[in-house]
Amino acid sequence: MTSLVYINGEANRPMPLLDPTGEIDSDRPAPVPRVPGTPKAQRRDLARWKAITARDTSQDGKFVYGVRSTGIFCRPSCPSRKPRQDGVVFFSETGMALRAGFRPCLRCRPLQRDAHSELVERLCRHIASHVEEPESLEALGSREGLSPFHLQRVFKRITGLTPREYGDACRVARLKARLQAGQSVTEALYGAGYGSSSRLYERSSSRLGMTPATYGRRGLGACINYEVADCCLGKVLVAATASGLCSLQFGDSERCLVASLKGEYAAAKLLRNPKALAPCLQQIQAYLTGSRRNVDLPLDIRATAFQWRVWNHLKAIPEGAVQTYSEVAEALSRPRAARAVARACASNQVAVAIPCHRVIRADGGLGGYRWGLSRKERLLDSERARTSGKSA
Ligand SMILES: [Zn+2]
Fold it and tell me: Ligand 1 center to residue 72 CA distance, Å?
């Protein structure tokens, strides 16, 4: 059983233009606008940004831009307040913006203008605000006095998507935003309107790179053993399938740790099993108390290709050493991906087994740590103390 699924799309989608996330600490001071991509794409996007700031009507129809913070997309000439450059993402066609889950702006009306565009815009807004309980074609049609068939045809002609596909796109966009803002997968799924319908998980799965058989069913059919113990960092929870460790979490409260495990694997058979986890905990304790240099356990976690690359790299950073998010990105030949590296670190489900605590910011700041910065600090301090003692 593979246990965990992460969704940041790194594996199957190019870096977003102008890296619009910004929630996670980057080790860049970020004074200069960052425009990832080929030099040609960079020039194009800079020209597009200039067109937006100039509200250049001659560019209308040539591209649209989405504003991450609002989820709305506009024509270049839109009179609304100018967005932040790093919160903008460009699309050559309106269909691409809709597929990314953006809603058409009410002021500049970016959809192709024809007799039905206003109706379709209305429907887009309605669908986007009802992702928790998507309406049937019949219901949508009756709102507008159209037959389901006619409605679908009109919608598709103007947007390139069916109403259902657009609803899915909105849900995916919300889910991604929630995950990037640091919510747990379970929280994010519910918050993004996935409810408990496995059909919906499955429908979105192919685009997200999720595997419905695993996370979609939240561990259904899997046996997961777990145990909680005291350690120098508070409580430690370990959980493992037959193939390997699927969760290693630090926390202050046993109750919270177990509750979050149960949330994550609501459909799995969870068994508290001190005996099965004893060797695993022993190794973790040995590492925490300094008699082992690393935690080296088989892992049963699922990830995007990019996350695998990051996590493999982290496993090679020796005890006592640190690298910056940019250095890791550099080492993976993705020099502009420091933020994506930070996100991959933040989505690590197995503390210390994948030593994401050994990645810090370029200015020496600790960056983030999902189990609390004070734990990161203590881990690094004790590793440094041990290794400097050895080399002295
Ligand atoms: Zn607009």
Answer: 8
* Residue 108 CA to ligand 1 centre (angstroms): 4
* Distance (Å) from CA 141 to ligand 1 centroid: 26
CATH topology of domain 39-163: DNA Methylphosphotriester Repair Domain (3.40.10)
Question: Which strand ranges, in their side-by-side order, compose the sheet holding 103-104?
Answer: 88-91, 64-67, 72-74, 103-104
Q: Structural domain boundaries of the chain?
A: 39-163, 223-288, 305-391
Which CATH number is associated with domain 223-288? 3.30.160.70
Place of tokens 């561990």: 219
How far does the centroid of ligand 1 lie from the alpha carbon of residue 2, in Å? 43
Please say if 232 is a catalytic residue: no
Unique residue bearing structure tokens 């990019």: 306
Residues, beta carbon < 5 Å, ion ligand 1: 74, 78, 80, 105, 107-108
> Is the CATH number of domain 305-391 3.30.420.10?
no
**Residue whose tokens read 């425009």:** 35
pTM: 0.47
Going residue by residue through the chain (392 aa), what tens digit of pLDDT does each one get?
333 333 333 333 333 322 333 333 333 333 333 445 677 888 889 999 999 999 998 998 899 999 988 889 999 999 888 888 888 999 988 888 998 889 998 888 898 777 788 899 899 999 998 887 788 999 999 988 999 999 999 999 888 889 988 988 888 788 777 766 666 666 666 666 665 444 334 433 333 322 322 433 566 667 889 999 999 999 999 998 776 788 999 999 999 999 989 888 887 889 999 998 998 899 999 999 988 888 887 777 776 767 878 888 888 888 888 899 999 999 888 888 998 999 899 889 899 999 999 998 887 788 889 899 899 999 998 998 888 765 43
Active-site choice (74, 108, 246, 280): 74
170 included as an active-site residue = no
Distance 96 CA to ligand 1 centre (A): 16
Q: What is the DSSP string of 26-52?
A: -SS---SPP--S-HHHHHHHHHHHHHH
